[in-house]
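Team,

Forwarding the record for the chain on the shared tracking sheet. I've put the sequence and predicted structure together so nobody has to dig through attachments.
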Amino acid sequence: MKEKILEAFANLGFKLEDADGMGYVFDYEGIRFLYMYNENDENFLSIALPGFHDYDENNAAQYCILEEKINSTLKYVKAYTLGGGMWLFYERELFGGEDLETIIPRMIYQLEAGLVFARNTLREIETSSDDDTEGCESTTDGSNE
């Protein structure tokens, strides 16, 4: 399946670069994406937008609010913390008969729309005087306090 996916990316005009075993990076509209593959599950298709928003102690409340807003509002696109930053993911199961040259662009467009949503939401959060972090019990390492 990996070969079919790589072929679909090539047919769509994307130039993928090896990302040291994590998958393949590619650019679209000035945004760097990552096609991640799982050798243990060939039917798992995951495209990510890595580290678009950094976490630090000074923005912990805003960071948490942003992640919650993305995950509770957007369909298909989800936010996770990896390596000290927020990533957006679109993941799906493949069954074998899909038109990958239709699916891949839709995934990329949804991730791009998710990034726009995240940036707009972050601006709203930053201008808001409400620092309510209710519902943000998770820490950035995935554990609960």
